[in-house]
Amino acid sequence: MKKERRKFSPVFKTKVVLEAIKEASTMQELASKYSLHPTQITAWKREFLEKADTVFGSEKPAEKEESKEKELYSKIGELQIQVDFLKKVLGK
Predict the structure, then answer these.
(1) Nearest one of 38, 41, 50, 32 to 14, comparing CA atoms
(2) pTM of the model
């Protein structure tokens, strides 16, 4: 029988990572406390620190996606107008 993978919430991961960053306990102690492998905690900590600069960024990721989406819809509209014009000019 196949063992199902455990899934951890972002809140849980953040809690564990913050404890790891404080270094009040060793990785082994944290691993046994939360029933995790020390390598997993290290990976979460590395990922957290790599993405920490996005927290104080000027624009949120969702806003970036919205602006790109608006830009793409605008471009689609322009292209559709060009297609309609060319159809009219060519008489199709």
Answers:
(1) 41
(2) 0.59
